[in-house]
Amino acid sequence: MASISQMWRQLKSKYSIYHVFVFLLTFFSYAFFHATRKTFSNIKTTISSEWTPQFCNATEPCLRPEKIWMARHLFDSSSDAEPFLGWLDSTFLISYAVGLYISGVLGDRFDMRKVLSLGMCLSAIVVFVFGCLTEWIHLYSQPVYVILFVLNGLLQSTGWPCVVAIMGNWFGKSTRGLVLGAWSACASVGNIIGALLVSQVLDYGYEYAFLVTSAVLFAGGIINFFALVPSPKEVGLPEPEDGDDDDDDSEPSGEEDENGVTPRTPLVQTDTDPPVTFTQTRPQAISFFQAVLLPGVIPYSLSYACLKLVNYSFFFWLPFYLHSQYGWKETVADEISIYYDVGGIIGGMIGGYLSDRMKKRAPTVVTMLLLALPSLWGYSASPNNKTINAVLMAVAGFFIGGPANLISSAISADLGRQDLIKGNSEALSTVTGIVDGTGSVGASVGQIVVPLLHKQLHLDWHWVFYFFILMTLLTAVCILPLLVREVRSMKCFLNYQLRRQAAALVQDTHRPHSLNS
Question: I need a labelling partner for 250 at 20 to 30 A (CA). Which of 118, 328, 401, 428 fits?
Fold first, then answer.
C-alpha cells in the first residue's frame, strides 16, 4: 500500500496538466480515426442492399420506385457485392500500409500537430464524400469508390506515427509501458464509439452514419490544430529521460525531497530567477533507411507483421466465425466479439507495467506470445457456450492483443528514442511508421489467406487457427535475438549488483578493525 501511494506521489510530481491533455487529445484522435473505419464495417449489410436491386413481391414490397432502383444498382445480388466490399478492405489496408512509411517520415520533418490535424480533416472529407456526397448526388461508381478508399488509407496513415511520436516525446521509458499500454486502448474505444454512433442514425440511412463520424473526426482535427502540444520543449518542460532508466547507479540530476521525488522546474518564474529562453529549432530528421537499420527496428517490424496478421484477422473475421461456426445471430456475435478487445486492453496494461518494472520489453512480450499458443488452441476447441467462449476469447485477446499494443506503441517509442540517436536527430515518427507499416502489410495478407483457407480450400476453421498459431510462433522467433541480448544484459547487471553488495559487505566488516588500530 505504501509503494502504491509513493508511486502516485511520484506520478503527480513528474507529470503536469500538459501530460493529461496530450494523453487525452492523442487518445481520442486515433479513436476517431478508428470510429470511421468501424462505420464501414458496421454498415456492410445495409450498403450491400443499397447497391443491389430489390425484387418486389407480396411479402417484400418495394421501398423505392422500381425504375429508379433498377437504374442505379451496382451489382445483381448481394453475393456479388460482398466480394467488392472485401476488396475495399484490402485496398484500404494496402494503401494504409504504404502511407505509414510516408507519414512516419513526414512526422519527423514537419510539425506533427499540423500533419495530424491535416490528416484528420482531409480523411473526414474523404469519408464524407464516400458515404454522403455520392449518395446525395446519386453517383454510384466502383472506380470512384476504390480511389476514395486509397485516399482514405493514405490520409488515415498520418494518425498512428504522429500520436505515438507525440506520446513518446512526453512520457519517458520508466513509465512508458504502463502509460502507453493503457493509452493503446484508443483503437478499441474508437470501435465502440463508431458502433454507438452508427446504431443511433443508421435507420435514417447509411449516409448519416458516415456524416456523423466524419463530422466528429473533422472537429477533432480542428481541436488538435489549436490545442495539441507535440513536445514538452514548446512549453518549457524538460524532455523525458530515456537513457538513464537502466542505470540505477547514475547520479541524480537534482535534489530530492523526503519522498525521493526530484522537483520539476517551475513554469512560472520569479523576479529573482534568470530569464530563460526556449528555442524551437528541430533536430535534423533521420533518413528512412537509417531508421530501418537502427537496432531492433527490423526484428520488431517483422514480428509485428506476423502478430498484426493474427490480431486484425480476429478484428475482421471473429463475428463471422461466431455466426458461421455456432449459428449465433449477428448482433450476438458482435457483442461477444468485444471480449477480445477487452482482453487486449488488459493485456497491454499489465504487460506494459511488467516491462516497466523489468526495464526490458522482450522478456515480457515473448512470454505472453508463448502463452498465446495454448490460448489459441483452447479457443479453437471452445464449446457452443457463450460464457465459456467469451472467457477463452478474452484470454486469447490478453496474450495476443496485449503484445500487439506494446509493440505498436511503447516499443516503437523506445526504438525511436534510443541512445544511439537521442539528442541529434528525429526518428520517433519514422520508426513508428516503419513498424506499423510492416504490420499493416502482414494484416493485408491475412485478409487474403483467411478466406482462402476457409472458403476456397474448404478447410475447417481449426486449420485457420493452426495458421494463427504458426504466425504467433514466428512472432516470438523474430524477437528471439533481442530476448537473448536483453536476458544477458539483465544477467550482467545482476552479477554487477551482487559483486557491489559483496564488496560493500566486506568493507563494512573491515571498517571496525581499522578504527581500533
Answer: 428
